């Protein structure tokens, strides 16, 4: 039911108090303007008193004829419905009522309390920019605008969460992003109906096509330069107020193995480390399974010189390799989780000392073979090589089905699981784009930036999987001169 703003100041104040259930942080400041009484209503917990004085109260004695000319705010709104004013106060705005007027003057004086811009802890690089997103949406959009000085950069605001009213921003470049992808993102955001949306994790789960898939279908990043690079490839970014993470879509499997360092280094170095990361994918998934299958079913494939060391290592273990593998994998996960939850100095100590002490103790006690300790250590290191935390978590989960298959059927079980994994990756999509592109479907042009990073002058086209409107990143230069001739 719509309720109009009243000329009676006390009636307006009473309504606002009732709307906030007489909360103690609902405050009012009275003033006189041209011999007329007025009140300023706000929530003291979310507004900045100093800004309020500078934008309004310091100008009351300037001799102006209208109250709106005393409000030095670019976002000033006149509102006639009182029931529309109270939600604005929640957003850090102030409502000014003047005796006898049938409208309220609403403007923004919200309090800003943000940490300083610094490099994200989980996405560090050797070369390149060392700034990262923070919890303020406007600051994050400023970091993007600073990098993409293009009038085609479009920002669309959304508000999600019936109770939290979280503000989101959909960012894309109009001349590059495919309209179908933009529309798909907009439709999915509008379809979200939830009381609580306060982090990108909530938004990501609502937007994903295959929620049962262990693989992330949106790229999470706290780096403005990485977000900018994806925007220039025709992708869409989603930023949430109160969180430093940007969601990028659509993405492919190989996007999670790309790092800004790949492009800040020479292409030979960048390609080497990207290949190393791709190898780590296979190590993280296959090494424990191969060890279990070899010891349990295929002992004959072990070289003759290693038969006796392996035999002496495993013959004292009272249970099968799958049990010791699960025991050690769970121990590593417990140490990792404890290291995250504890304060940084203590967490690092727990991770190092705990791993050494536990590893040595279980071997001495005959509960786990020393070869299994090596296998688990290599696997853990390989899973942390991935530049994306979400993909790293996926690898740690996916390796368990491979271990069970290896313990049940040996190498045949491993190949069966790997076949299912490939089928799933080939079938998976991210906002209509193939997840395993450019391998499936095979696109020779895009292979230049997948397993390796080709020289920049060879990467003339944007990824075709995103279906960008402008497919050329740069034009081929003809007649290139050498040695400055």
Written description of the protein model:
This protein has 15 helices and twelve strands. The protein is of the alpha+beta class and 485 residues long. Strands 1-2-4-5-3 form a five-stranded antiparallel beta sheet. Helix 4 (137-147) packs across helix 7 (224-232), helix 9 (267-296) packs antiparallel against helix 13 (370-383) and helix 14 packs antiparallel against helix 15 (411-427). The chain is elongated, with a radius of gyration of 29 Å. The termini are far apart.
Strand content: 5-15%
Task: Report strand order across the widest sheet.
Answer: 1-2-4-5-3
Low-confidence stretches: none
In total, the number of strands is 12
Sketch the major β-sheet. 5 strands, antiparallel
Helical percent range? Answer: 40-55%
Number of helices: 15
Class from helix and strand fractions: alpha+beta
Backbone CA Rg: 29 Å
- Rounded mean pLDDT score: 86
What is the overall silhouette? elongated
Order of helices and strands: HEEHEHEEHEEHHEHEEHHHHHHHHEE
Key structural traits:
13% strand; 15 helices; alpha+beta; 5-stranded antiparallel sheet; 485 residues; elongated
Short description:
The chain is built from 15 helices and twelve strands. It is an alpha+beta fold and 485 residues long.
């Amino acid at each position: 039911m719509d309720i109009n703003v009243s000329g009676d100041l006390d009636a307006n104040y009473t309504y606002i108090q009732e709307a906030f259930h007489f909360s103690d942080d609902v405050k009012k400041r009275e003033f006189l303007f041209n011999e007329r009484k007025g009140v300023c209503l706000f929530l003291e917990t979310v507004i900045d008193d100093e800004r309020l004085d500078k934008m309004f109260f310091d100008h009351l004695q300037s001799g102006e004829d209208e109250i709106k000319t005393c409000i030095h705010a670019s976002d000033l709104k006149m509102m006639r419905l009182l029931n529309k004013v109270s939600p604005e106060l929640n957003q850090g705005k102030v409502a000014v009522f003047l005796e006898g007027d049938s409208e309220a003057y609403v403007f923004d004086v919200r309090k800003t309390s943000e940490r300083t811009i610094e490099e994200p802890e989980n996405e560090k690089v050797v070369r390149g920019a060392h700034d990262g997103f923070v919890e303020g949406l406007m600051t994050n959009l400023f970091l993007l605008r600073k990098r993409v000085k293009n009038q085609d950069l479009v920002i669309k605001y959304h508000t999600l969460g019936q109770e939290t009213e979280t503000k989101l921003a959909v960012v894309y470049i109009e001349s590059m992003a495919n309209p179908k992808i933009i529309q798909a993102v907009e439709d999915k955001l509008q379809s979200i109906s939830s009381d609580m949306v306060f982090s990108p994790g909530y938004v990501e789960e609502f937007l994903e096509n295959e929620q049962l898939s262990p693989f992330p279908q949106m790229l999470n990043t706290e780096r403005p330069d990485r977000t900018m690079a994806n925007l220039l490839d025709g992708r869409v970014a989603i930023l949430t107020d109160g969180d430093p993470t940007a969601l990028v879509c659509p993405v492919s499997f190989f996007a999670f193995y790309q790092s800004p360092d790949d492009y800040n280094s020479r292409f030979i170095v960048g390609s080497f480390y990207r290949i190393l990361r791709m190898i780590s994918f296979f190590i993280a998934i296959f090494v424990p399974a191969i060890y279990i299958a070899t010891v349990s079913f295929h002992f004959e494939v072990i070289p003759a010189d290693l038969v006796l060391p392996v035999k002496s290592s495993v013959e004292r273990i009272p249970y099968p390799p799958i049990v010791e593998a699960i025991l050690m994998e769970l121990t590593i996960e417990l140490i990792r989780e404890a290291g995250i939850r504890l304060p940084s100095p203590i967490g690092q100590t727990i991770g190092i000392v705990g791993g050494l002490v536990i590893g040595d103790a279980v071997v001495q006690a005959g509960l786990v073979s020393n070869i299994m300790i090596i296998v688990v250590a290599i696997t853990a290191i390989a899973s942390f090589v991935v530049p994306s935390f979400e993909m790293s978590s996926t690898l740690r989960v996916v390796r368990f089905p491979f271990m069970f298959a290896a313990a049940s059927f040996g190498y045949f079980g491993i190949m069966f699981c790997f076949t299912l994994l490939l089928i799933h990756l080939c079938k998976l999509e991210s906002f209509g784009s193939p997840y395993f592109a450019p391998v499936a479907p095979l696109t020779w042009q895009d292979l230049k930036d997948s397993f390796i990073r080709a020289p920049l002058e060879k990467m003339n086209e944007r990824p075709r999987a995103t279906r960008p409107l402008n497919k050329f990143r740069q034009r081929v230069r003809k007649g290139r001169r050498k040695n400055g001739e």
